[in-house]
Structure formats: structure tokens, C-alpha cells
Records
---
Amino acid sequence: KVPIIVVGYRSGSGVEVEADISVGTIFEDVEKGFADRCIRRLCAMCPKALHLVRIIKLWAKVERVNKAYDGFLNSLGWTLLALYFLMERSELSCGDIDIEEPDERGLGADPS
């Protein structure tokens, strides 16, 4: 439901880069970037979470199971699955997820 544009680039040497671009700042009362900020908070609370997420996302890319339009989880889905795994093992707590870090939205940004 969120307007997304998928753009890609392939260099002459065959290196591929793909990015999703969303449009707008608020959709159904959820501010753009909210999920990203929550994920950053969780990874800051548990450094092993960041390493686990990176390894899983790299594995998913290598195995080509990271494309939602092919019927797999996208990158965000793999990230959330890894974080949930750590929560289930009590290695990560989401109790402090609502506490916003200073300047989390950029220097001088309004936190409300």
C-alpha cells in the first residue's frame, strides 16, 4: 500500500545496486522512518543483533531469497525475523524501544 519505486543500477563490471524509494512522510498515522529508527534502537541495545542481521541479509542475498516479488521475505522481513529470534531467546528486550535517542531524527529535529 505504500508507494514504492524500485530503482537499480548495474555497472560495467557487473556490480548491481538496488534501492527502494518511498514517497510521503506519513501513511496511516505511521511516520516515515519509524521502523528504521526502532531497528536502529534495538541494534544499539544488543551489538550482536547488528552482526546477526548483516549475516542473515548477506546469506539471503547470496541464496537469492530476499525478493518479496519472488515470494520470499524482503530485507526488512529478514531483519525483523532476526530481531524476533533474539527476543525469543531473551538476548534482546524491546522494553526500551519507545525511548528515543537524542538527535535520532537529525540534529535539531523536532522529536514530536
---
Amino acid sequence: GIVNRPSYSAVGGWVGGISNTSSTGRQRAAADFFSYLSNNAQSLPDVLPNQISSFADPYRYSHVASSEWSGATGFDEINAAQYTDAVREINSVNSVMELRVPPGTELRKIL
């Protein structure tokens, strides 16, 4: 028969914010920082494993081009393709998301 094997998206993304009670200067500085982190030119080198970090967390469609993940990152072409295919699979209508309610941690412990 048919077996449903949804992908599991544990975290589901990143978010940044700043309090509206912060000074205008700090709000602008935070907006500039978030803009810098998320722009195309800067974001790809930050999500690829490198000499500073082995942490990889792509968050743009452009980040999951397997050609970017092979070579200097330590991934060979096959592993790069497998990794980026798996990341793209998470962006599916069939993905299972983490429980996102205030008492979520307590509920997970009970289950």
C-alpha cells in the first residue's frame, strides 16, 4: 500500500526583531544588521560550512543549490546533492512541523 513518510522540520526557521520601545537609532541599527545578514551576497557564505563554523542552516532557496555545497565546504558532489535534496524536501506541503504552542516543551515531555 501507500506509506506516507513526511519530512520533519524541527525548528522551522529563524526570526529577528527589536522592541518598539528601543530608540530609533537602535531600531535602525537592528534593521541594518538583519538586512546585512539576509542579503544574497552575504547570506550564502554564512550558511556554508567554513573554517569558522561547521554549522549549516540554509534559509533561502538560493542556498540549496548543490553546486555551492561541494568542494570548499568539504561535501563531495554526491553528499552535497543528497543534503540539498533533503533540505528542499522539507519545504513540502507534507512536512511535519514542530509543535508551536506556549506549553509545547511540557506537552512533548508527556508524549
